[in-house]
Amino acid sequence: MALAERLQRLGTETAFSVSLAAAEWGAKGNRIFPFHLGDLNLATPSNVVAAMDRAIADGKTGYCPAAGIPQLREALADDIGMRRGLTYAPNQVVVQPGGKPVITKFIQAVMNPGQEVLYPNPGYPIYESQIEYFGGVAKSYRYLPSATGFSIDLDQIRSLITPNTCAIIYNDLQNPIGAESTDAEREAIAQIAIEHDLWVLSDEAYFEMRYSGTSKSIASLPGMQERTVILYTFSKKFAMTGWRLGAAVGPVEIADTIAKLNTNDESCTTHFVQYAGVEGIRGDQTEALAMLDVLVERRDAAVSVLNDTKGITVAAPEATFYLFPDVTDAMAIVGTDDLAQFAERALHATGVSFCTRRHFGRPQPGEDRQYVRFAYSGIGTDEIREGLGLLQQWIGSF
Ligand code: PLP
């Protein structure tokens, strides 16, 4: 007996190994400062929790339509459209158990084996995993450091496209980099997609996790709504990572296909959880918005200590809850050129736990700077100051 060959092409989120290393170090009695988690240590808004309780009491515990309950599809169509200056009909919204399943279902819907899909690297590791698992060719595009953070290497994207390219995955408000496209960059990506007739998966997981300004969607640009599937999730905005609630939003033919995949996979997203989603979208926003005040305070604390640390420089993103500092010089100071070793030594010396660039894809040719990712979603401001203060002292001690 053997397992299926395609499993050799299935990737994973190697960042989970960082959680394991932190847990092991913590189990030995050491204090851990968790900057590795893309999860939130904030509570789901109480009105959302109450709506789920009501739905259970009302008996919303059986199967429901594969594409989601009509009330949630309607609420999402209104809200997602309104925030992007677009009109979506409820039949263009397909409810999912989280945002992540949109990635695999988009790829299954648009890509034939042997076709090529472009995806960001560093980026969310599931893109590459799913493209390859379904027999596609995963072609990564890179980011270049810029005056304000990072920008996409558009020339590289253009050079990667062949007649066999069917789609591009675009994660504006980026994990792990925290980068946001300028209007010009977003328009250039749209232009490339239109010119080469590509589908676009716009991963908008962090669309509403921002501290100033307004997010823009590539779907809003002329000629883009009909070729774009938006990945929407409740995970971050409503601190609902473990509830598993999200949606795919796009052209009807893809929405119908994704709904059919739902029927084959999970039948439906948990029925009563969808009523909580309706409350999240339509109900009182006070608690959800208050989370952004907490997060921006954390961001400012982390950025301030990191930029005061020898050998570390970091930009302060206006969205997401990730920092992607350049630690090349800090690594030289502590005497290592190995990122994994740097992270391990930092953990053992200070208890500060973080992911590295390597958890978000293989380094690209010519990449000569070293980066790590600090998530400030799962750690309070005082702990941020304390942990990063210890990191600062440790690097300063060499
Ligand atoms: N896309 C990006 C860029 C993410 O960072 C995440 C989660 O961290 C997801 C999608 C999926 O999140 P979820 O499945 O919880 O909605």
State which percent range the strand residues make up: 5-15%
Strand elements, count: 14
Low-confidence stretches: none
Determine the mean pLDDT.
Answer: 97
How would you classify the helix and strand content by structural class?
alpha/beta
In helices, the fraction of residues equals 40-55%
- Bound ligand species: pyridoxal-5'-phosphate
**Strands side by side in the biggest sheet:** 2-10-9-8-7-3-4
In sequence order, what are the helices and strands, one letter per element? HEHHEHEHEEEHEHEEEHHHEHHEEEH
What can be said about the biggest beta sheet?
Answer: 7 strands, mixed
Estimated radius of gyration: 21 Å
- Anisotropy-based shape: globular
Q: What is the number of helices? A: 13
Terminus-to-terminus distance: 55 Å
Structure write-up:
The chain has 398 residues and is of the alpha/beta class. The chain is 40% helix and 14% strand. The chain contains 13 helices and 14 strands. The strands form 4 sheets. It has a 7-stranded mixed sheet, with helices on both faces. The radius of gyration is 21 Å and the shape is globular. The mean pLDDT is 97. Bound molecules: pyridoxal-5'-phosphate.
Quick tags:
398 residues, alpha/beta, seven-stranded mixed β-sheet, three-stranded antiparallel β-sheet, 40% helix, binds pyridoxal-5'-phosphate
